[in-house]
Specification:
Layout lengths: L4 H28 L10 H55 L6 H22 L20 E4 L2 E4 L7 E5 L2 E4 L4 H6 L1 E2 L5 E5 L8 E2 L3 E2 L10 E8 L2 E8 L4 E8 L5 E4 L2 E6 L7 E6 L2 E2 L1 H13 L4 H62 L3 H26 L8
Antiparallel strand pairs: 1-2, 3-4, 5-15, 6-14, 7-13, 8-13, 9-10, 9-14, 10-11, 12-13
Length: 402
Amino acid sequence: MRISTSTLYETSTSKLSDLQASLMRTQQQIATGRRVMTPADDPVAAARAYDVSQARATNDQYAINRQNVKSSLGLEEGVLASVTTLLQDVKTQVVAAGNGAYSDTERQYLATELNERFQELIGLANSGDGVGGYLFAGFQSGTQPFAQSGNGAVYSGDQGQRMLQVAASRQLGFSDNGNAVFEQIKTGNGSFTLGAATGNAGTGVFSAGVVTDASLLDGHDYSVTFSVTGGVTTYDVTDVTTGTALSTGNAYASGQAIAFNGIQFDIKGAPANGDSFAIGPSTNQSVFSTLKDLIGVLNAPATGDAGKARLSNGLVEAHSNLENALDNVLTVRASVGTRLKEIDSLDSSGEDADLQFAQTLSDLQDLDYTKAISSLMQQQTTLSAAQQSFVKISGLSLFNFL
């Protein structure tokens, strides 16, 4: 079969070009360390590598989100630690205010100090989140959450909790709203609260009380009214909600338990004829209102035995409410700590996942250098032989033998 000179050159040139292209691709693979440089090199591996790269990028974003949550929660923990210390200091002042040797003037000094602590608490509740917003404003992060009012503070935020996706199936709150931290705090002992009537003339001082049987609590308001006849003190218990008397003419002894419908407390001292005490279900009250009430109690003169009893009852009530406020803050702090611990666990899992993604991408894309170098040597030898063969074949001509 006769082969024309043009066909010989075209065929040889095409083959040499293919060999050179293969050699160049191998050289590029060795230079980059990648086996798959374009989807054409391995379509299946390229598609799989794209999916893995997307998953790895998402995992990286989760890591960034976790760091942001960690920073915000760390800031919140610092503020709540300061709030805890402040409330503990105020409780100490409440105990000091009960010192019978203190005069009205000295208690007013305490009230002045507590007013400064009130301002400090307002400042802590309005702490910034480090990015131009407020920690405790809920979704309304750009709005200052608390503003001082006559009876405490007004909350302008909402009840939302800002969240971030920190794992494929997990969102974490990176803040807590001020309503949950500072506003929704139970009064009294958390189940019911006691209060002395303003006009009480005796020296009766109530305790915070306890619940003896929660199943008997009905949410009603009650009153305990004292009668003193011939030097004998008795009391009547009335269900104010229904207007019915639960018991009448009960003998009174200072410090003896008074119990009914799952409620138990005691009153010490000598109530006067007509003195009464109100018992009702606990309600929510802000810590700011508790502090304002306490300041009012300390500023009020404690003249005579009745005045001292009013002071003692006010301090008992304030102490219970402050204890509840402190418990609430500690509960929020425990929640913050739990979230921080979970972030540490998720960080560990995220790092493991990143290593797995990196290994999978390496298996799909990275070059086997031993195999590639062997192929390079083979391709260089083949190309060199092809070039030499082409030179010899292209030199065959009858004109060389004439």
